[in-house]
């Protein structure tokens, strides 16, 4: 971990590719700046890899697979054990880099790393996760068993909003299952991801087992169409995820695509008022709303519409500042382009007739006047045909809809095309049971605003938020990164036994 910290006076870093265990200077003529979203300071320059460089990374992974697939499970697990220890040791420094390039508060950056670290820790138990099955004497002297074997070279395409957690959802589980990996981190904030990759090499990941390329659509398409790659894991926007799923699927690859969201929190009148309001504000405005599991819609049932002034007052107390500054609650959004898009959607809400309870536009942060800041923004009087409801804003904007009953709330949520996460706030067990049974959303929280499951389970977004049937981490991702081979065997005690020719399909 010798890289200098962005913003510490060091020269602008030139980001490298990782190919066959070596950090390589790209020969690309297409480069993009990595920019601190709070200051517009250029932290690094990242290359968009050439087709030859992408091919070299995939080739290295393919070559390494021959020996890595036969590496004992225990040896792979020990690398993950060392990796999790190294991540813990260096988490503060990685968080500082992550905050500088992405804009998150330092506390949220550490949370980003920790949630990824949990997956690395879960990878250490692959010995029990990758077990096959055995059935003795399924027919006369015949045994049947299954093997879970690695599938080959896999690729991962990750978004800007979780540059630690989401890469750690991918490459540790693929590698520990015996696959090799080509990672394409977000070109907007790759520095913290590369620090994690550097630690993976230090932990003992062999040359070629993990490779890194950078780029945009051309690199994504190259990974989706490369004949050697067997599976592609993607997290990001709906538009890009749909493209990845269709293109990679057409080229015969397994694909898991976790995509956009519009997450609702339904609030019943019997909910604990203070706890619910705190949860809504934290889930809506934390990370400047740049979470695929952020609560972006509050559905107030019955007289909970009277809570809106308290919701506004609580949101007004949040401190907007650079993520590196003490006491910051809401940092900048990732780019000037993202800020412009969020502010345009806020304006659309005003034009379409919603009530702008709290306007986060025009926030000025002393000392960070060039930052991409949007303050907490709250709308009431929202209807389901407004753009602020139909589109994923990916900014610190919470929209409030009002209904009279829980049945109406369930129907409203189920009509929305997305299905990433939803929550219900109540003290009624009967209402909670009804909600979790009838709601058509992959991940449900009961008095939990962001119901991202721990790694023992799998991330289970659904409908418009997910393409592919297997989610990241947990048991499902072991299925995704392995193939099942079924063996049916018969052994004779006496080799001279001759049962004659059998032309029927059944086993004797």
Helix/strand-derived class? alpha/beta
Strand content is 15-25%
Name the helicity range. Answer: 25-40%
Main sheet strand line-up: 15-16-17-14-13-19-20
Average pLDDT works out at: 94
**From the alpha-carbon coordinates, what is the Rg to the nearest angstrom?**
25 Å
Span between termini: 62 Å
Main β sheet profile: 7 strands, mixed
What coarse outline follows from CA principal-axis ratios? globular
Task: Enumerate how many helices there are, as a single number.
Answer: 15
Uncertain parts:
1-10
Number of strands: 23
EC number: 1.2.1.27
InterPro entries: Ald_DH/histidinol_DH, Ald_DH_C, Ald_DH_CS_CYS, Ald_DH_N, Aldehyde_DH_dom, MeMal-semiAld_DH
Enzyme class: oxidoreductase
Protein name: methylmalonate-semialdehyde dehydrogenase (CoA acylating)
Describe the structure.
The protein is of the alpha/beta class and 508 residues long. It contains 15 helices and 23 strands. α2 runs antiparallel to α3. Strands 15-16-17-14-13-19-20 form a seven-stranded mixed beta sheet, sandwiched between helices.
Short account of what is shown:
With 508 residues, this protein is of the alpha/beta class. It contains 15 helices and 23 strands. The longest helix has 30 residues.
Keyword list:
oxidoreductase; 37% helix; Ald_DH_N; methylmalonate-semialdehyde dehydrogenase (CoA acylating); Aldehyde_DH_dom; 15 helices; seven-stranded mixed sheet; six-stranded mixed sheet; 23 strands; 508 residues; EC 1.2.1.27; 22% strand; alpha/beta
């Amino acid at each position: 971990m010798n890289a200098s910290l962005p913003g510490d006076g060091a020269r602008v870093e030139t980001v490298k590719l990782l190919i066959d265990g070596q950090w390589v200077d790209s020969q690309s003529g297409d480069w993009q700046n990595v920019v601190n979203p709070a200051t517009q300071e250029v932290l690094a320059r990242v290359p968009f890899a050439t087709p030859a460089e992408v091919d070299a990374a995939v080739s290295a992974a393919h070559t390494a697979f021959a020996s890595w697939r036969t590496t004992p499970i225990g040896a792979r697990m020990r690398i993950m054990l060392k990796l999790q220890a190294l991540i813990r040791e260096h988490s503060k420094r990685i968080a500082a880099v992550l905050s500088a390039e992405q804009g998150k508060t330092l506390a949220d950056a550490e949370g980003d790393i920790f949630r990824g670290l949990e997956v690395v820790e879960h990878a250490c138990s692959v010995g029990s996760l990758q077990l096959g099955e055995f059935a003795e004497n399924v027919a006369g002297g015949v045994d049947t068993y299954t093997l879970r074997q690695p599938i080959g070279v896999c690729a991962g395409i990750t978004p800007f909003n979780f540059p630690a957690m989401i890469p750690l959802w991918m490459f540790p589980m693929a590698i520990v299952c015996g696959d090799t990996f080509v990672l394409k981190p977000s070109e907007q904030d790759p520095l913290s991801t590369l620090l994690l990759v550097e630690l993976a090499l230090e932990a003992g990941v062999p040359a070629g087992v993990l490779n890194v390329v950078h780029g945009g659509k051309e690199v994504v398409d190259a990974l989706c169409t490369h004949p050697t790659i067997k599976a592609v894991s993607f997290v990001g926007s709906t538009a890009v995820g749909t493209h990845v799923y269709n293109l990679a699927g057409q080229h015969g690859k397994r694909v898991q695509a976790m995509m956009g969201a519009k997450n609702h929190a339904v609030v019943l009148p019997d909910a604990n008022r203070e706890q619910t309001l705190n949860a809504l504000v934290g889930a809506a405005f934390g990370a400047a709303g740049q979470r695929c599991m952020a609560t972006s819609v509050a559905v107030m049932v019955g007289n909970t519409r009277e809570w809106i002034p308290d919701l506004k007052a609580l949101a007004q107390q949040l401190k907007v500042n650079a993520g590196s500054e003490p006491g910051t609650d809401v940092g900048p959004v990732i780019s000037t382009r993202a800020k412009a898009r969020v502010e345009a959607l806020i304006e659309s809400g005003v034009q379409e007739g919603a009530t702008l309870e709290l306007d986060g536009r025009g926030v000025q942060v002393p000392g960070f006047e060039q930052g991409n800041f949007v303050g907490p923004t709250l709308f009431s009087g929202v209807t389901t045909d407004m753009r602020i409801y139909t589109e994923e804003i990916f900014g610190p904007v919470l929209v409030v809809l009002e209904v009279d009953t829980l049945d109406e709330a369930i129907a409203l949520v189920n009509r929305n095309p997305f299905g990433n996460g939803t929550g219900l706030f109540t003290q009624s067990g009967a209402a909670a049971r009804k909600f979790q049974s009838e709601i058509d959303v992959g991940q449900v929280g009961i008095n939990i605003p962001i119901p991202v499951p721990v790694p023992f389970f799998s991330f289970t977004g659904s409908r418009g938020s997910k393409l592919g049937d297997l989610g990241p981490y947990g048991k499902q991702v072991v299925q995704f990164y392995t193939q099942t081979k079924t063996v049916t065997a018969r052994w004779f005690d006496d080799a001279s036994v001759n049962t004659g020719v059998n032309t029927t399909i059944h086993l004797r």
